[in-house]
Amino acid sequence: MSGLQGVGLLLLWGSVCLWLPGLARGALLISGDQKDLQEQRGAAKSLQKRSANEAMVEVYSVKVDCTVTSRFAHTVMTSKALNKANYSQEIFFEVDLPKTAFITNFSMEIDGQVYVGEVKEKEKAKKQYEKAVSSGSTAGLVKASGRKMEKFSVSVNIAAESNITFILTHEELLQRKLGRYEILTRVKPKQRIQEFQIVTNIYEPKGLSDVDAHASFLSNELLPLVEKTVTDNKAHISFSPTMEEQRNCPDCEGTLIDGDFVVTYDVKRAKSLWDIQIVNGYFVHFFAPLDLPRVPKNVVFVIDRSGSMTMTKMTQTREAMLAILKDLHEDDHFAIIQFDNRIEMWKESLTKATKENVDEAMTYVRNINSRSATDINEAVLTGVRMLAKDRQQGNLPERSSDMIILLTDGMPNSGEFDTGRIQSNVQSAIGGNMSLFCLGFGNDVDYSFLDVLSKQNQGIARRIFEGSDAALQLQGFYEEVASPLLLDVDLRYPDNAVDSLTTNHYSQLFNGSEIVVAGRLTDNDLDNFMVEVFAQGFDEEYKVQGQASAEDWNVLYPDEDYIFGDFTERLWAYLSIQQLLGTSKSGTPDEKSNATAKALEMSLQYSFVTPLTSMVVIKPETEDEQGSPLIADKLTEEQRQQAEKVAYKPYAAQPPSYAYHQTPTYLVDGDPHFLIELPERDDALCFNINNKPGTIFNLVRDPIPGILVNGEIIGEKMIPPDGQINTYFWRFGIVHQSLGVRLEVNTQDIVVLQDGKQVKLPWSDAASVKGTNVDLLLTKDRSLTVTLKDSVKFVILLHKVWAKHPYHRDYLGFYTLDSHLLSPLVHGLLGQFYHGIEYEVSELRQGEVQEKPDATMYVKGQELNVTRGWQRDFRKDVKNGENVPCWFVHSNGTGLIDGDATDYVVSGLFKTV
Ligand SMILES: *[C@@H]1O[C@H](CO)[C@@H](O)[C@H](O)[C@H]1NC(C)=O
Ligand SMILES: *[C@@H]1O[C@H](CO)[C@@H](O)[C@H](O)[C@H]1NC(C)=O
Ligand SMILES: *[C@@H]1O[C@H](CO)[C@@H](O)[C@H](O)[C@H]1NC(C)=O
Ligand SMILES: *[C@@H]1O[C@H](CO)[C@@H](O)[C@H](O)[C@H]1NC(C)=O
Ligand SMILES: *[C@@H]1O[C@H](CO)[C@@H](O)[C@H](O)[C@H]1NC(C)=O
Ligand SMILES: *[C@@H]1O[C@H](CO)[C@@H](O)[C@H](O)[C@H]1NC(C)=O
Ligand SMILES: *[C@@H]1O[C@H](CO)[C@@H](O)[C@H](O)[C@H]1NC(C)=O
């Protein structure tokens, strides 16, 4: 991947899409050696400079200071660096912040001069940004970083022997999930730091419980380096290892600090005690009562089994479903609907979750397999009708929660296609009577569609990332909604005492979560602050009423210098903006524009970087560069998803995904579709070769052991009605000279010639032939596995077509399974990839077909236009194949393959030229 620096960076306004090759994920980082952050401008110049002076930037201080006041987290990240060189150079600053947080301030101090960022309307910032770009300057960047974080990075040119300080502040309301709050700090300093510190102070007036701190990079012996002091209502957690303690091993210069530092806690909850904070004219009410019995639920699982659900995704879905079914409570009711272009119900109505019923459902789930297209509209409506009917007929407990969980990995492409119409169909069918939760599996879902669909129906949407832990993600989500405690929760405050309330009606309260409502007190009349909560409980109405009183934070925390002053107000603003941003997508047109305007106004007033605003700081002028704006943005979930599509699987540090087979596979199958699967990269490349029927191509050639694989293509019986002329491989010649083996495989039979003896095997037999140098395993009418001793293993698949098909004929597919023993000289259309291929892909853009974006591939010193598509691997499922997403290289693979496709044409099945 070296030699490609300077090509990975791209910022598109509005949709930030980036892929920085090899970029260290994570972290708080400053360095003078950040090759990945090359700008197009002057890349060569600064590269030279940098490689000569890697050690000339010293980062001498990194501090992360987080203060949590009643769940509201305020984090300041400070980094200081010194340019030790006797000339100016570029210094890079990178931090990761939680995607749920808003940046609220950014500043740089250079030579005693402070440059402070300002939050501006995004459109205005964009104008400034465009000017900067046209004058050749750089801008700050924000991009997705893993599942939970986003990365902010800037670079500044610093004079010789000068110091720089970067300070970034962000804020967020911590959300309670499965009974705890989490504060996540990602640190990746890349060098040992003189002064390194992560400090977290938590203030919770009602008291703290289960305070825990751990880090992915700290072994048990090193955990004592984390100091933890917890008193009744305050926790202080500090981690400040010395230079010596930061070493990754006794004699190493490297740092062990590299990963996530996580603090978790919960708040003590006592029965019927309010948790309401009132400070400076704003109140916040946290509602999560203790010891409530769960309310039974009626849940319809609507499961996508369309063709795009790969074998892996389907397996993970089944695995998750089995665990979820096992966890159903006896008094729950459930139904399962699987859909592609057709809808299939396990049963016509909901079923009580008795042991026998669950067992029966599990058997059913084990048999769900992927098939055809995606009819989301009909599938969800079927679920709604089923629930509504059972509810109407009194088949369900009166007090119980009705929900639909939709799992899909694609866009609607069967039945109703129009996402707007699906949304209105579903919304009017549900009519506020049940919740719809949408799980979008992988990168090919239309997440904004699912997000709006669930927001319109009292639910939430969640992305499920492809990867080996997908089943756990599905179960994790289910657990969050598995135990409703209250339904129709209404939180009421006196009309004449409060205004600007955030959402105060929720259709459910789930076990382990929390409802938060904030608002402004109109006349600060605390004597009259009556609070009421009404809801439907397990077997009775839930109702509490009482007077809230303000706690005096100065009395609670007499020794603290921290000004708690405005945290309730900022919390209120944060929550209001988040909710307005939701309405700005899911409301009526009028609501949308009002919500957008209000969210923008509040973002500007409270200095929050939201999807509607940007942080702009003017970079100082230097001898090399004129002053220019640096800009920080906020990504929406759709933009994150878009960016991930480009990078495809950017999470190098996450467990490897099973989406691909575990060894590299090189294959040609179907209308000569070449597919190079690269499991270490979780990616694949593909191309087609077109030529006249009868043409013979060389696929593999290795002069050292004398291996040759050639294949001949054949056309259709006649030109199909769509005029598309396809060709297929129908005959392969395989020679291994030093082993004295020669094979001819066509769609009829297999002829093996070894040591002068010839054996003919028809495809209609099953056979296993073990020779001294070659093993053949023939599965009747299906596949032939060829193992050449100490050399290579191939599989040839037979695709049998209905004999009377008007134009298709039988054809073959060729798969290389093990090629690592071949020599470095191995070549051919497939063979040239056996020893790996280096490439980078970036600059995702709209392609001809919406689901198939185009991108630029840098490979073999060239830039190619490629298209994201998929091709099929038929090894596991000979009939339908398994979709493998891949980068498609156009024009007969030109640019990816060495030379031209015609260079691989040979004159005979066993000929080398
Ligand atoms: C910078 O330092 C190098 C040696 O470290 C020296 O050769 C060079 O003359 C210095 N340049 C300036 C401009 O001082
Ligand atoms: C932003 O940071 C600068 C420098 O640290 C500070 O002077 C300023 O008060 C901060 N602004 C806000 C709104 O906190
Ligand atoms: C940079 O900061 C360090 C640490 O605060 C200080 O010792 C040093 O004098 C500073 N150097 C310059 C050139 O300002
Ligand atoms: C929602 O439930 C109410 C009360 O049961 C019922 O009257 C109404 O028709 C339902 N709405 C829809 C769209 O089914
Ligand atoms: C949107 O704002 C306008 C002007 O403030 C107001 O008249 C209108 O009622 C609002 N619409 C909604 C749906 O809130
Ligand atoms: C790639 O496509 C773009 C337009 O989509 C075109 O301008 C460019 O020339 C193409 N590049 C190559 C190498 O084909
Ligand atoms: C692929 O190669 C064949 C044979 O040389 C040629 O006819 C065809 O136009 C090529 N296709 C593309 C898209 O370049």
TrEMBL record:
Residues 1-26 form the signal peptide. It comes from Eleginops maclovinus (Patagonian blennie). Gene3D superfamilies: von Willebrand factor, type A domain. PANTHER family: INTER-ALPHA-TRYPSIN INHIBITOR HEAVY CHAIN FAMILY MEMBER (PTHR10338), INTER-ALPHA-TRYPSIN INHIBITOR HEAVY CHAIN H3 (PTHR10338:SF115). Pfam families: ITI_HC_C, VIT, VWA. Its main location: secreted. InterPro entries: ITI_HC_C, ITIH, VIT, VWF_A, vWFA_dom_sf. Belongs to the ITIH family. Residues 298-481 form the VWFA domain. It is found in: Secreted. May act as a carrier of hyaluronan in serum or as a binding protein between hyaluronan and other matrix protein, including those on cell surfaces in tissues to regulate the localization, synthesis and degradation of hyaluronan which are essential to cells undergoing biological processes. It comes from the Eukaryota. GO terms for biological process: hyaluronan metabolic process. This is Inter-alpha-trypsin inhibitor heavy chain H3. One of its GO terms (cellular component) is extracellular region. Residues 43-172 form the VIT domain.
